[in-house]
Amino acid sequence: MEIKNLAIFISGSGTNLQEIIDKSRNGYLKANIKLVVSDNENAYGLKRAKNAKIDTFIVKKNYKELLSELDKREIDLIVLAGFLSIVPKDFIDSFKGHILNIHPSLIPKYCGKGMYGSKVHELVLENKEGISGVTVHFVDDKIDHGTIIARDFVPVYNSDKLEDLERRIHKTEHRIYPRIIKTLLEGDIIEK
User: Fold this and answer.
1) Under a CB-based contact definition with an 8 Å cutoff, are residues 159 and 118 in contact?
2) Which residues contact 124 (CB under 8 A, 6 or more apart)?
3) For residue range 2-35, what is the model confidence (pLDDT) as tens digits?
4) What is the Cα 24 distance to its own chain's centre?
5) Is 35 within 8 Å of 75 (Cβ atoms)?
6) Domains of the chain
7) Which Pfam families match (predicted)?
8) Total Cβ atoms within 10 A of residue 190
């Protein structure tokens, strides 16, 4: 099977990035991570990339320059892994059907502008939801909206503190995201 080229977009600590790096290094993912992109020059995920000897790129409003960097590296798939900036429509159009996102809730619940990370989990706990989860979807020009590829459910317990729910959500993300990326790279998922 042909090895595909990935770009991973992050804003923070990069735990999903690390999981994808590990899975590509151990052969589970037939992929080369060619570029890690961040909108936050202080993101810890950039250190993870440097430790893995992966090129990095800081994007603010320079998406045209980023497109050039992606083209140079012949990127097959863009993986948003905790990337908090809104990606411009013309950029999305350039990679339509080749941009994935993972969201820490069961879309359409707790998604959209300003809904990310602990903000989602705080609302889930505040609203005494019995279940939360993770959604992987293709990216379109609306926030947390594109075609859903997979969801995985995570129980919410009455005794949960924020860190308990966050830990279970992260564990689920680390399991589901590499599996979906693998399936996509192997050609078993195609956006219509």
Assistant:
1) no
2) 105, 110, 132, 156, 165
3) 889 999 999 999 999 999 999 999 999 999 999 9
4) 15
5) yes
6) 4-106+136-151+169-185 (3.40.50.170)
7) Formyl_trans_N
8) 8
Tell me how far apart the alpha carbons of residues 49 and 46 are, in angstroms, rounded to a whole number: 5
User: Which residues contribute to the annotated binding site?
Assistant: 14-16, 64, 101
User: Which residues are annotated as catalytic?
Assistant: 103
Distance separating alpha carbons of residues 174 and 15, to the nearest angstrom: 8
- Binding-site residues for (6R)-10-formyltetrahydrofolate sit at 64, 101
Whole-structure pTM value: 0.94
Alpha-carbon distance of 187 to 72, in angstroms, equals: 23
Q: Each residue of 53-83: pLDDT tens digit?
A: 999 999 999 999 999 999 999 999 999 999 9
**What are 118's two structure tokens?**
């602990």
Look at the alpha carbons of 158, 164, 169, 175 in this order and tell me if their dihedral is positive or negative. negative
CA-wise closest residue to 138 among 92, 174, 91: 92
